[in-house]
């Protein structure tokens, strides 16, 4: 099944994401991520820069953001596709892919992403631990989520390596990764 | 295959190189060497990995440079060539410099050459190499030009002529002024200045010794350029220093060139990040891989952070008149500063301007240490001492003392089990704010100071560089259970702005008085003599501006130099000096200098973002330190 990605950007990007998902997102550095739950659905939040976030979320993000009347855009980019690979494939990929300084690929930790290239194809490699259960409530609006709470839910978590790339490259990239 | 046309090499690796007396000694193994006569150009090949050194023999001479892939693309028959627009876009700098943003890219974004070292920092990539048209328009039809010279030397390689070549114009002194005009003046380069490039692929290059003698670009007098090509593989011992990445800067006319250096801790830091930038002559980390400035910032505010501040300059001031010198030159009253205490203040000039800010450490009335920002501080102190006929020795000791800062609420807990004081009665918890002591960590002797630049409880550790890496390892290991993280300049800048701490060259320079930048409290006008005292007494009564903190409405961040306006008015009342988004306050904050009439706390002003008109953001005047203005955290008992 296709992953649903929401890209949030704008002056109020940080404020909006914090008000929806808790202050913990403010502690993320660019290309770091965290896992939480929004309206009962798992939500993986990747910070791209100070005010830009990419959120993997199966619900309708616009319905959460519209009431906030803020200066942000919420988009689902038609040209951006995502798919998951296995940990074994990540190992092979890190041997072949390249990154531009100052990014690093070796030892990519969990909850971390990196812009990378495989031959001429550009992608974002995102290692994170998605929350599988839809019923858990790690975060409720008005209550802050915490890494401690996240770790308590580890039993229902699933390691995930997501690849984001252009729709024009997605099939070619999948094939290349499968053949690594 | 390359067309077999080569310029005459002075030395093609077949015989011993000529020893030139008019240029710096070679950096390593030379494989070819060319002397370009004034007003001429040459083409030459460079293999992948080899180095090209472009030397300005006499100074003030421009040398335009072109690089093409050695072979044309078999399908398109086009060659890759340096594209300065691509380069600027990819690197976000006007001209690449040694370090992270060092590569010149081709039209397809492939790196062709990388700047490894440059002893002159002003070059041009906005303008064409000089063209016949330039000279024609100036009334010199037929004047030789770099573009025409390039056409001639590149023709044998099948490269078509162009009326003007978009070259990298090394040593050409151009800049975009505040009106958007590109202005050119005489080159900054001195005799022997050079740019050292490394080829990222096999290249065909062309270099000129610019023939322009009709304006100041070459100091009105074209002179030769010397090219050396070095082997890709150099002796390891040679390569470590001679081919190390460095930016050369001159800090004063009578000072030798200073190349970017590593601190004792840089080898350890390089293991953790590739994001290093030049700061005050040192390679320093911007942020750390898989961590980022946000995490570093929060480690500092919540736990602890370790940072390399070796770029500070240290001077030992010794002799019978050491006290008199500092009492005269430094803003604070040192009368009650006893051994083991330190004070923050500034060195002043006769009109009350700040030469530098720093900390004076008192070892005895005949021995102080000044820790500041500038190599020239020592000369200034020596000059003052000489003029006063004082017996005092001012010695630069920066190369013998490198320093880390361990800052954050957990810093004491991390250090406590590690530190052994020379006096058994001393303990870390008794070491007060602005106190220091000689201690040992393991078998490493160091000077431990309860000071910092973050607005947090913290310590600075001054150590012999030979034991730097060992100290770094001990501290990082000991701090791990506490959540200690290494911290880079991005996070440090955010923290120091929150704490209202000044940055040299940003908040002040030698035209700015302590009363303008918010450290008037550090000036002791009660001292009988103090450099600049008369001027400071007058400035104190009505400084032209005073430093304030601003809290902006909304999340947009201001930038240094943006104007501050009276509410609803067109006229300015001041300027932003530093700004950031404060994560802990969750507000956009700034340090500003405004006219005293608008400096009262709670005054609402406007910050002109963008062009100053399109978006005005309201801001409220407050203390310079937006975070913990009472300094309760740094003074925590």
Structure, explained:
- With 180 residues, chain A is α+β, with helices and mostly antiparallel strands.
- Chain A has five helices and nine strands.
- Chain B is an alpha+beta fold.
- The model of chain B is unreliable at 1-6 (pLDDT under 50).
- Helices cover 17% and strands 30% of the residues of chain B.
- In chain B, a hairpin with a 2-residue loop joins strand 15 and strand 16 (282-285).
- In chain B, the strands form seven sheets. In chain B, strands 1, 3, 5, 6, 10, 12, 13 and 14 form an eight-stranded mixed beta sheet that branches. A seven-stranded mixed beta sheet of chain B has the order 24-25-26-27-23-17-28.
- The A-B interface holds A 11-12, 14-15, 18, 26-32, 47, 50-51, 101-104, 107-109, 112 and B 100, 273-275, 286-287, 289-296, 298, 554-556, 581, 583, 586.
Short description:
The complex is a heterodimer of chains A (180) and B (637). Chain A has 180 residues and is of the alpha+beta class. Chain A is built from five helices and nine strands.
Question: Keywords for this structure?
Answer:
heterodimer, A: 180 residues, alpha+beta, four-stranded antiparallel beta sheet, globular, B: 637 residues, eight-stranded mixed beta sheet, seven-stranded mixed beta sheet, 13 helices
Radius of gyration of chain A: 16 Å
Q: Main beta sheet of chain A, described? A: 5 strands, antiparallel
Return residue spans of chain A where pLDDT drops below 50 for at least 5 consecutive residues.
133-156
Helix content of chain A: 10-25%
Topology:
The complex is a heterodimer of chains A (180) and B (637).
Chain A lengths: L4 E5 L3 H9 L11 E6 L2 E7 L5 E5 L3 H5 L7 E3 L4 E6 L1 H10 L15 E7 L2 E11 L15 H6 L4 E10 L3 H9 L2
Antiparallel strand pairs in A: 1-4, 1-5, 2-3, 3-4, 6-9, 7-8, 8-9
Chain B lengths: L29 E7 L4 E6 L4 E6 L6 E7 L14 H8 L11 E3 L5 E8 L13 H6 L8 H9 L13 E3 L2 E4 L5 E4 L8 E6 L3 E6 L16 E6 L5 H7 L3 E4 L8 E2 L6 H7 L3 E4 L2 E4 L6 H11 L2 E4 L4 E6 L3 H8 L12 E7 L5 E11 L2 E6 L4 H11 L5 E4 L5 E6 L3 H5 L3 E3 L14 E6 L2 E6 L8 E6 L4 H12 L5 E2 L2 H10 L15 H4 L15 H9 L4 E7 L10 E4 L5 E11 L4 E8 L9 E6 L5 E8 L15
Parallel strand pairs in B: 6-13, 17-28
Antiparallel strand pairs in B: 1-12, 2-11, 3-10, 3-12, 4-7, 4-11, 5-6, 6-10, 8-9, 13-14, 15-16, 17-23, 18-21, 18-22, 19-20, 20-21, 23-27, 24-25, 25-26, 26-27, 29-32, 29-34, 30-31, 30-33, 31-32, 33-34
